[in-house]
Each structure stands twice: as C-alpha cells, then as structure tokens.
Amino acid sequence: MDCSHVFEFKFKRLIVVFTLFSAFLLVSLGANAQVDTAHHAENTHEETAKEKKFDIGKFALHHISDSHSWHVIGDTYIGLPVMLYANGKLVTFNSADFNHDDDAKVVVEKNGQRFVKMHEKIYLASASANEHGQYVELDEKHHAKNARPLDLSLTKNACTLLLSVIVLLAVFLNVAKGYRKNKGKSPKGLQSWMEPIILFVRDDIAKPNLGHKYERFMPYLLTVFFFIWFNNMLGLVPFLPGGANLTGNIAVTMVLALATFFITVFNGNKYYWKHIFMPDVPWWMYIVMVPVELFGIFTKPIALMIRLFANITAGHILVLSLICLVFVFNSLYIAPVSIAFAVFIGAIELLVAFIQAFIFTILSALFIGMAVEEHH
Amino acid sequence: MITGSIAAIGAGLAAIGAGLGIGRIGGSAMDGIARQPEAASKIQTAMLIAAAFVEAVALFAVVVALMGNG
C-alpha cells in the first residue's frame, strides 16, 4: 500500500518527525513511572499508617513546584547553591546543608545568621524550637510567621533554564554551522531535523499572520517556539536532566508573555493606536469602546501567560494523580492500570508540548501582526 | 455520606463546557475536511487555534477550582 499521501502536508510530516523523536522519550517515561511507583510505595506505606489518608493534591503540588534541591532517585538529592540577601549581607551555601529537611527542623548557620527551610521557602530561624522541633513560629493555619530573606537561589527551575539554554545553543549553533557549510546543498545531520520545523514556523506561523514584514519578527518567534517546546519536553522527562516544571511556572510564562506584550506595544503603528483610541464609531461609543480596547491590550498577554502555565501544570498534575491512584486504593493490582493511563497521558502530553509551543507562537504572531498591519 | 470539595463540581462543569466547545470545533473541522480534503492542513491549523481558546477557558476554571480547593 502506498502511504506517501500521509506525508503530503507539511504539518503531518512534522508530526511524523516529532513522533519518532518522542518515542524514545516515551519509553523512558514508562520505565521511570514504574521505578517511581515502587519508590513511593515504600514511603507512603509509612505515611498511610500515620495519617490513614493520602492527599493527592498536596503530593501533586509538591512535585510540580520549584525546589532548592534536585531529586535524583530514592534518597539521593543534588544540592543546589542557595543565595540569600539577609540583613544587608549576601549569604551563600549549598542547599545540601539543610540535609533535605523541609520542615524547619535543621538550622544552617552562616555568617552569624541562622536559616531554616520549610515547604521550599527559606526563613530566618527562631532562637528556639517549638513543640514539634521546628525553628519557626506557626500561626493557626500552620504557616510560618518568621521573616524571610530575599531568596536569589539557583533553584531547580533556574538550573533547568540554564540547561535548556545550553541545549538550545548547542542545537542551533550546529544547525547554523551546517547551513553555512551546506549552502545550496541538501541539509545534513541535526540540520535536517531542525530545518523543516524552522520552515514550519516561517511558512505556517509567521507569513500568514505578519505578511511581508515577517522577517523582522522571525528571530523572536523562532526563539519563543523552540524555548517553549524544548522546555515542555524537558519537563516531561521524569528523571535528572528534566523533572523541573519550567513552563508550568507562572513567572516563566509571564516573562514570555511580557516579551510579546512589549514587542506588540513598541511596534504598534498609527493605525493600531487609532483603532484603540479613535475607532470608527459614533463619538458616544468611545465611553465603552476605548476602555474595552485598552483592556484588550493587557488581557491578550495575560491569556497567553495563563494558557501555557495552566496547560503544562494540568498535564503534570494529571500524570501524578494517575500514579497516585495506587496509593489511594492502597493496592498493587491497580498499578498496571494507573501506569498504562499515565503512559497514555504522557503520550498526549508530548503532543500538547508541541501544540502549546505552536499556540503561543502563532498567537504572538497574530497579536504582533494586528499591531503592524497597514491600513487597507 | 458523600465527602469532597465543591471545587470538584466546578471543575466538572468546566469540563462539560470545554467538551461541548471542542466537540463542535472538531466536528465542524471534520465537515470542512470532508468537503475540501485539499484544505485539510489549513483547517487543522485553524481548528487547533480555536481549540486552544476553548481549552484555555476550561483551564482557567480548573486553576480557580484548584485554588479554591487549596
């Protein structure tokens, strides 16, 4: 049977390339889900005896949030540098000094100042421990009341950010070199993997939305597309080089959305601003139109920010909750079902990782296109 | 006795809304592709964008439900 028609559309061709690449990631996800389950089974067995109830929400939120140390496997963690600005002094130490305590029980003393870590937040330690052995004062909701230093630490997310920058640079410097070397010839190696995707961004995202001015915005669109895509994929790898939920962090998506916001505002031409402040409507409509249009400038990037954040976070929570089913039912026989579902959702997440990068880029291009469009 | 959070009902309602929305988008895209198979790639792109808008609203609701739960 001739299957060549499948490759006819650029988008489909891209999906095929993408699926082949992701097959490798999928296998590792499946393998690791089992390891993870076995490991947590031991931990939670002790906990269930104590608390009798397994809190999925707490477990999932703990796993998707940022952390001061990097979990490898079992009880092995990598300490990350902690940088604090407290009482006018910069204090640095290794997060391994906390001994992976997250309950304010271990005090780190540095430069005459004492710190404790509770729920991944660093506090100035109290002089003496409370009845639970914690060096913090708690309010009635069990939140710490102690003062917090300014935390500039290189956390797990910050490290992943640097890692993804290295990966992106390595890939794209290689592709750029290949492009120079094979000019006029067919692409080679990594170049033949990236070139169709770069062309996809140019032909299907930039050109239809930006018209003939697309070249000016191509660097931004390509950067944002590959940054989001690579980080979504890194977030899906459950073990060491991945494991951080970078694009599921609202601060990261906010910076990305701010970039789109500033590019839109600074490139807006007179027609764009006229459309906002002096639309072609009767003057008494201005009372409604102008505030709504002004509001629209800000809601667009905010929607971009929340869309990416919520999609990636929801995906991670889904996978974690499915794995948690084992502990909710407290039975090993549910494990095959929950792992099968987790792998299935993991496969969907690979697609979502691509689609979200695509959506963010195409909407950015759409908004920029609206701002630079000439009057006709 | 039924225990649980009312936030779960909110998340469920959001899922119903998103399901109706994405179902309509998907169905219409199918119709479009069946009528004009040569325009499939363009229809797919437009479909994904529209689906993302619908999905985003549902996800806002899920985030609010999560916050209300927490």
UniProtKB/TrEMBL annotation, chain A:
Topology in membrane? Multi-pass membrane protein
Instruction: Spell out the InterPro entries in the cross-references.
Output: ATP_synth_F0_asu, ATP_synth_F0_asu_bact/mt, F0_ATP_A_sf
Which superkingdom does the taxonomy of this entry point to? Bacteria
The molecular function GO annotations come to: proton-transporting ATP synthase activity, rotational mechanism
Task: Give the signal peptide, or none.
Answer: 1-33
- Keyword presence, ATP-binding: no
Please classify the protein's predominant subcellular localization into one broad category. Answer: membrane
The listed locations are: Cell membrane; Membrane
Keyword Acetylation appears in the UniProt entry: no
Task: Please give one Pfam family short name.
Answer: ATP-synt_A
Kindly state one GO CC term assigned in the UniProt record: proton-transporting ATP synthase complex
- Ranges that cross the membrane: 161-179, 217-240, 246-269, 281-298, 304-329, 341-372
**Keywords assigned by UniProt, alphabetized:** ATP synthesis, Cell membrane, CF(0), Hydrogen ion transport, Ion transport, Membrane, Signal, Transmembrane, Transmembrane helix, Transport
HAMAP family per the record? ATP_synth_a_bact
- Cited NCBIfam families: ATP_synt_6_or_A
Family per similarity comment: Belongs to the ATPase A chain family.
What exactly does this protein do?
A: Key component of the proton channel; it plays a direct role in the translocation of protons across the membrane.
**UniProt protein name:** ATP synthase subunit a
Protein species of origin? Pedobacter polaris
Task: Give the encoding gene's name.
Answer: atpB
UniProtKB/TrEMBL annotation, chain B:
Give residue numbers for the site Reversibly protonated during proton transport: E55
GO MF terms held by the record: lipid binding; proton-transporting ATP synthase activity, rotational mechanism
* Gene3D superfamilies per record: F1F0 ATP synthase subunit C
List the InterPro entries hit by this protein, alphabetically: ATP_synth_csu_bac/chlpt (IPR005953), ATP_synth_F0_csu (IPR000454), ATP_synth_F0_csu_DDCD_BS (IPR020537), ATP_synth_F0_csu_sf (IPR038662), ATPase_proteolipid_c-like_dom (IPR002379), F/V-ATP_Csub_sf (IPR035921)
- Residue intervals of the V-ATPase proteolipid subunit C-like domain: 7-67
Alphabetical GO CC annotations of the entry are: plasma membrane; proton-transporting ATP synthase complex; proton-transporting two-sector ATPase complex, proton-transporting domain
Q: Where are the transmembrane segments?
A: 6-25, 46-67
How the protein sits in the membrane?
Answer: Multi-pass membrane protein
Q: Which domain of life does the protein's organism represent?
A: Bacteria
> Where would you say this protein principally sits, based on its record?
membrane
Q: Give the UniProt subcellular location, in the record's own words.
A: Cell membrane; Membrane
Q: What does this protein do?
A: F(1)F(0) ATP synthase produces ATP from ADP in the presence of a proton or sodium gradient. F-type ATPases consist of two structural domains, F(1) containing the extramembraneous catalytic core and F(0) containing the membrane proton channel, linked together by a central stalk and a peripheral stalk. During catalysis, ATP synthesis in the catalytic domain of F(1) is coupled via a rotary mechanism of the central stalk subunits to proton translocation. Key component of the F(0) channel; it plays a direct role in translocation across the membrane. A homomeric c-ring of between 10-14 subunits forms the central stalk rotor element with the F(1) delta and epsilon subunits.
Q: Which family does it belong to?
A: Belongs to the ATPase C chain family.
- Protein name as it appears in the record: ATP synthase subunit c
Lineage at the top is: Bacteria, Pseudomonadati, Bacteroidota, Sphingobacteriia, Sphingobacteriales
